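Appendix C. Worked example: VPS10 domain-containing receptor SorCS2
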Amino acid sequence: QDLQIISTDENQVFVAVQEWYQTDTYNLYQSDPQGVYYSILLENVRSTKQPEENVLIDILEVRGVKGVFLANQKIDGKVTTLITYNKGRDWDFLNPPDIDMNGKPTNCKPPDCYLHLHLRWADNPYVSGTVHTKDTAPGLIMGAGNLGSQLVEYKEEMYITSDCGNTWRQVFEEEHHILYLDHGGVIVAIKDTSIPLKILKFSIDEGQTWSTHNFTSTSVFVDGLLSEPGDETLVMTVFGHISYRSDWELVKVDFRPSFPRECTDDDYESWELTNLQGDRCIMGQQRSFRKRKISSWCIKGRSFTSALTSKVCECVNSDFLCDYGFERSAPLKSQSSKCFADFWFNPEAPPEDCVLGQAYTSSTGYRKVVSNVCEGGVDLQQNLAQHMCPLIAPKGLQISIREESLAVKPGEDITFIVRQEQGDILNTKYQVDLGDGFKAIYVNLTMTGEPIRHRYENPGIYRVSVKAENVAGHDEAVVFIQVNSPLQALNLEVVPVVGRNQEVNLTAIILPKNPNLTVFYWWIGNTLQPLLTLDNFLVTKFAETGDVRVTVQASCGSSMLQDSKVVRVFDHFHVLPLKFTKHLDMYNPDIPEWRQDIGRVVTRLLAKDTNIPEETLMTVVKPGLPTTADLHVLLPANQPKRKRSVTSDKRIAAIKQALNAHNISFFLRGGYWVLVTLADSGSDSRRIGGGSGYWAIVVLFVICLVAVGAFILYKKLPGRNVYAQMHNEKEQEMTSPVNHSEDTQNIIQG
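Step 2, the predicted output written as structure tokens:
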């Protein structure tokens, strides 16, 4: 689920990995020297989520002594602190002190009671975290925690060790901010509290005794501690504020006058690094350090070095950890835990890059800890078995696109990359089929990394396959490529007037027609969540009256278009079906602009002849053939909503009268006269409304072509640009007189 890098020191990577079953813990892994193969070191290390999705892992590298780490492990809700001296090969609990800071017995005895520390980083960069270490003060660790069977969040007693975690002492009952001066020769502590302070504590004997110092006459809220540059410095600064409204107060504290002289060789003593079992050989060497004697009152100074001697040891079992694919049976035990192969790992299996004819060695399950310098002695890596690389069947074949897009345009270059995770390469043939008739056989295709460049000329969906085959077996990879022409036009077809709670069909007309795998996004009203369809239509209902905006987006490959229409939703209105003679179908280009123009002309002529307000009439020419239309008769804006309307009856009668009197007519380009007549005076219309008891009349209108000729000629589809340029001129021609004597044949040819 997640991966956090802990350390990249000494040619090795430590990572914390949250696996599928974990929520607030991570597993700690360690890499080989190349950083490729990782082995598990410690499971269930506690983690804490911070603001802005930052994650803190409870693991801390102890500065000053290489290979020492502290970690908090969480098992069954209990958090315990562990320490390792050999880069995670062995982990142990922290030994508790026998007495507390007041000299009273702690009554904390293993295995039921240990010392546990909070391993938190401070939010404030100018104060120490809950555990404080320093490179120039090896072995000195000071942290906040508690004694018991587990770590308790609200307990933050302060403990200190000067021998790198072997023995601990309690120094305070509450958490303090810590600052090391003069290579740890002076330890400064200020209480972590929200109340103002004017006293700090300091120790010059590694926390054995503590003195107090009034660093200011007026108490301040402490915001942080700073030391002057250099590990040898004895000058520090406390900064804070007297009140929440005041400026910062900076107080300089100089400890130099407290020391009469600089230290000499006689003022130091040595100490040897050991682990909790008392072993002196750690990471393959015995290391001794020097520190100032408790009785000496002197300054270490700039020339002080803590490292004294080191001696290489003979190798023992603890200098080796489990190799990749192996795990130890008891990771907390420090002695002789054997490494066993995981169920998923076959130690005898050849490596992925094994080439026929070459030799490889199988792992014994162990490898030396990185940075371990031991020599001679035990060698758990010896007696490695030698094997000859067999012919391995190809496995993990993959096809990828360099352009990272599976949708391209016709004629656009596309580059295929073929990779193979496992198996022989030199003796494998690769059969490539690009789906459009191109087929080829390659050798060493995945070794050279040579790309396959291609270009699809025609739209469509192409199945691209690569089959890798040798004597040992075969593998195949397939990818589908969409070749789509960019969308050129999108028009939303929807009846502009609908009844409440009645089904309405929303249709998206796109050009070019029927492109492959076009996705349609539909927004109805003010919703932000669209409906997705692969069909270019959607059937829906409107529950409320009023104007509703419908928007559709069509997405095909890398192109996307949008169209939007407003639908008027009413409780009551009338619909008069219109039917045209079949001759009109010969000149119907079936595009939205043509239908809208015809509808507007019929509506305008009817309104002019009948004196019915044009805004209450709407003629909608339907798409497709045969050409049909609906005339919508709407209630006026101030008309009360009733099931039966006398006003509507009068308007419908007026429309019938106008059509029967042949008053509705207009001219076409080229001198052709179009007459609108009523086909059947005894037919009825239908009424749309929210109530029951619909009444229906079927009224049939016929628009006749008197002369034979072109109604409107559309030379190009989609024709949006050409048609839009001619729109104004054409609209005038459709309502103006023309010369009937013009030669019909010339017009048709034109």
